[in-house]
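Page 42, continued from yesterday. The earlier attempt failed because a stray header line got pasted into the input along with the sequence. Redoing it now with the clean sequence only.
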Amino acid sequence: MSEHPEGAHGHHPADLLAIELFIAQLLRVGVIISFVIVLTGIVWVIATDQTGYHAINLGDLDSIIAYRGGPPDFPDTFSAVLSGVLALKPYAIIALGLLVLIAIPVVRVAVSIVAFARQRDWLYVGITLFVLAMLLLSFALGEAGG
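This time it went through. Structure tokens are written below.
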């Protein structure tokens, strides 16, 4: 009888635990990075009274969230976020932080594919690849339609 019992598909529980701990750490670090980026954008808005897209008055909530019609007063595509971040626009920095937050579960799915492949669990590799493809397709269609 072996000293370390094997789990499903002949994998050691220690291997599974290491993978789960890595994914948990990845999620924690991703959320912290996202928070720091969003906070940086918020501080930049407060410090400059500017969004990078329209003038605001921090004492007037309507000037911050008002809908003006026409083109949006914030970056609404991935390319607009990137160009806005390069131009140091506070709303674009906030949007980047939100994109990082959205990307965290996608990265988790990608890491899961690697983990399942290392375990030679090809059924779950296939299922997880399909999930990743659907996520990426939804982002691509959203970008094309936005």
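Notes: Residues 19-145 form one domain.
Reminder to self: strip header lines before submitting.
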